[in-house]
Amino acid sequence: MNEGKTYQEIKAFHNCIIKKWVESGKSAEDFLETGSKLVIILDNASFHKKKEILEKIEIC
Predict the structure, then answer these.
(1) pTM of the model
(2) pLDDT digits (tens, 9 = 90+) for 2-50
(3) CB contact burial 21-31 (16+ within 10 A = b; e otherwise)
(4) CA dist 47 to 6, 10, 34, 52, Å?
């Protein structure tokens, strides 16, 4: 399966959130049930793709 860059970035972000959850002393297994919920809206707006915006996005 050829996963797109956006999917890979979202997957990496999800893994980062779980990592931080575990580092805080909680169980990874409990994350789906009791962890924070996050909604990502992918609207493909051109200003979200500007270099200065992308440079501010940091994963872990």
Answers:
(1) 0.60
(2) 557 778 888 888 899 999 999 999 999 899 888 878 777 778 787 777 7
(3) beeeeeeeeee
(4) 16, 19, 34, 10
